[in-house]
Amino acid sequence: MNYFPDEVIEHIFDYVVSHRDRNALSLVCKSWYRIERFTRQRVFIGNCYSITPERLIQRFPGLKSLTLKGKPHFADFSLVPYDWGGFLCPWIEALAKSRVGLEELRLKRMVVSDESLELLSRSFTHFKSLVLVSCEGFTTDGLAAIAANCRFLRELDLQENEVEDHKGQWLSCFPDSCTSLVSLNFACLKGEVSLGALERLVARSPNLKSLKLNRSVPLDALQRIMMRAPQLADLGIGSFVHDPDSEAYIRLKNTILKCKSITSLSGFLEVAPHCLAAIYPICPNLTSLNLSYAAGIQGSELIKLIRHCGKLQRLWIMDCIGDKGLGVVAMTCKDLQELRVFPSAPYGNPAAVTEKGLVAISMGCPKLHSLLYFCHQMTNAALITVAKNCPNFIRFRLCILEALKPDPDTLEPLDEGFGAIVQSCRRLRRLSLSGQLTDQVFLYIGMYAEQLEMLSIAFAGESDKGMLYVLNGCKKLRKLEIRDCPFGNMALLTDVGKYETMRSLWMSSCEVTVGACKLLAKKMPRLNVEIFNENEQEDCSLEDGQRVEKMYLYRTLAGKRKDAPEYVWTL
Amino acid sequence: MDNSLRISHEKELNLEATELRLGLPGSDEPEKRSVVRSNKRSSPEASEELECMSKGNMNSNGSDVTSDHDQDNVVPPAKAQVVGWPPIRSYRKNNLQQKKGEEGEGSGMYVKVSMAGAPYLRKIDLKVYKSYPELLKTLGNMFKCTFGEYSEREGYNGSEYAPTYEDKDGDWMLVGDVPWNMFVSSCKRLRIMKGSEAKGLGCL
Fold it and tell me: A148, A199, A140: which is closest to A178 by C-alpha?
């Protein structure tokens, strides 16, 4: 079967980079499996409980870059109880014991302790890149260990983590010999950093391309930093508050004029609106703008800013921009590909966005392929228009803030609107539904959403049929998460084999019972079926007829996990 | 406090089933759902109720008129009970709440003002005022009433009306006791009470 020596095949495999393609290669034949596993450097594990670290290391001894995801997605919305799992520790311990030369670690929704960060920093001499997204469990002490011990660190990227601040000087722990930084993001940290140490660090990092500061870094420090790093391409501003007549502000304005390489801007965690004019000169170069944490910028200021940003491809903003503001975006940002509109207050802002804004965007931005849109209302007519204007959606996540809200014009459910989206957007991979929805929308999804991989459902549907349409129709479905829907045992048990083709299924506040989950677990030994029994009462005997409050099941080769807390029952 | 007691009592009487509401169908559903699910055992009544709720979404006749404040009275308690909705990352939610406390300049702070006996409520922007006298003057003009002299000891004793407000904790407080800025950041709504009603608030 092999006409070429292994070295040639290895060389060819070097060009095959994506995880899916590499996985496909390994299935061709034994010899390719063998060659592939020894040449594999990057591994992505979407569920840290699907495989043991030991097995991973055994198969891929050449591992250099590991991506791990822990808690289920709904953990983001406080639906997963504390200490459910997703611990990094066993992975680091296993990797440290092995001969794997880990260089890159990317984690999402995992529990990371200072001890594991310390162990990580000491165990891999060529460690280069640490990216933590929505993780928790560590403090600035852990960061200090990373800074102090990872001599060739290129990237330390902290996104939306809950980090306890121990008031140590973690940033000062980067030794003078550390000059390799390319990316540093500490925007999510709440505490202060030594400004002197920060400036010196930036000064000795000629390759620094991405720097995202936290709130504690004031405007004058920002100016000094930007002076030392005119090569920055990606900047996250911490505090942007100053008297527009002050020396510091005037100096900043001049410094900004020199930073022509900045194409990505974010932050403004603290901002005085009248200071924004200083950044207008770099706006025409921006391809990415994230103002979703800039609570201090009002709609009118946002609009003024955006008028300067003709090249934007990615825009994350808050709904205070309003429908009118979205109209300006539609007129100005013709290259827009990704848009996220977040609510400025948990229950929305009365002057915020509606279906009108979305329609305007769809008319002006035909390249749009990713959307996350929190709004007050949506109509079927609008969705149908959007579907027609933007057939290229890959990700379409719509959140109508009031659960179960129908089309305000017709008072009908939004089945037809979402139906139009799935019918028109043949490449749709991710979909989040909201508003009033019957089983009909699921019929459409099952029929048309052939590429759909992830579906999020809340307060929707009328019967088991809804869930069955999806399970039967969406052949590429990998993640299904459902809350507060009337789907029950029949839907759960009709096609148990389906779940082995998926990464995971989450169902909370639905109609499934303990008995059905037990049956499922029995039939499918390679699934972990977890139910969370959060009642504090002691009568914890699970009767079959009892409704399950939260269930999370996932395929796994690792068997029942040993680190589950008491309230998690793996059936 | 008062509100939640009233709500749970109404639940027992199942008044909601027969209640005439001016609100979009389904605006109360989330609350019902989470309440039903607190039952450990799945009972036939519970699943029936669920079926009715889901079907109710379909069959109920939407009303034409949704008056602003009626919706607000109906919806907030329901929303407050739904965990994890809207689906915003807790990190983002925590950040927003922090900021709301600090910023707010330019965002306008509209609060409702009600008065016993008045046919409809009004709204005012607290950010527009710099002090209590300004605020009280405006309120007096809006509702054609007077408040009299404020004193820490007596409150607004002697006047026909007294201004009160609901704070972040849900308590009804007399306007004027705390520093102005503290009042602005903690005031959720205003209510002009008759002097006789307010006596209890003033004397402490």
Answer: A148
* Listed residue (B115, B94, B82) closest to A458, CA to CA: B82
| Chain B interface disruption, residue of A71, A73, A74, A76, most B CBs within 10 A | A76
∠A507-A81-B95 over CA atoms, to 5°? 105
Instruction: For residue A371, report the phi and psi dihedrals to the nearest 5 degrees.
Output: -140, 135
Task: Provide ipTM, 2 decimals.
Answer: 0.87
pLDDT digits (tens, 9 = 90+) for A171-181: 999 999 999 99
Q: Is the pTM of the predicted complex or chain greater than 0.80?
A: no
User: What's at A271, amino acid-wise?
Assistant: V
| Nearest-Cα residue of chain A relative to residue B103 | A296
- Please name every residue paired with B191 in a beta bridge, in sequence order, or none if there are none: B114, B164
Cβ contacts of residue A568 below 8 Å, gap of 6+?
A84, A85, A530, A531, A532, A533
A525 at B interface, C-beta within 8 A = no
For A485, how many CA atoms within 13 A lie in the half-sphere containing its CB? 31
Q: Three-class SS of residue A181?
A: coil
Burial class for A541, CB neighbours closer than 10 Å (0-12, 13-18, 19+): exposed
Upper half-sphere CA count for residue A382 (Cβ side, 13 Å)? 20
> How far B114 CA lies from chain A's nearest CA (Å)?
20
CB count in 10 Å sphere of residue B116: 10
Please give the DSSP secondary-structure letter assigned to residue A87.
B
Is B201 in contact with B174 (CB distance < 8 Å)? yes
3-state secondary structure of A396: strand
* Residue where the block lists tokens 């901002």: A271
Domain boundaries, chain A: 1-40, 44-208, 503-513+521-570
Instruction: Provide the CATH number for the domain formed by A1-40 in this structure.
Output: 1.20.1280.50
Phi, psi of A404 (to 5 degrees): 70, 15
Reported as a single tens digit per residue, the pLDDT across A100-129 is 999 999 999 999 999 999 999 999 999 999
Which single residue is written with the structure tokens 């420090």?
Answer: A221
3-state secondary structure A242-297: CCCCCHHHHHHHHHHHHCCCCCEEEEEEEECHHHHHHHHHHHHHCCEEECCCCCCC
Reading the block at residue A476, the tokens are 């590429």
B51 at the A interface (CB within 8 A)? yes
pLDDT digits (tens, 9 = 90+) for B55-92: 433 333 333 333 333 333 333 434 445 888 989 998 89
User: Which of A312-316, A490-494, A532-536, B102-106 is the least confident region?
Assistant: B102-106
Task: Name the residue among A344, A404, A432 with its Cβ closest to that of B29.
Answer: A404
CB contact under 8 A, A346 and B86: yes
A416-452 burial: b if 16+ Cβ within 10 Å, else e: bbbbbbbbbbeebbbbbbbbbbbbbbbbbbbebbebb
> Residue A263 carries which DSSP code?
-
**What is the CATH architecture assignment of A44-208?**
Alpha-Beta Horseshoe (3.80)
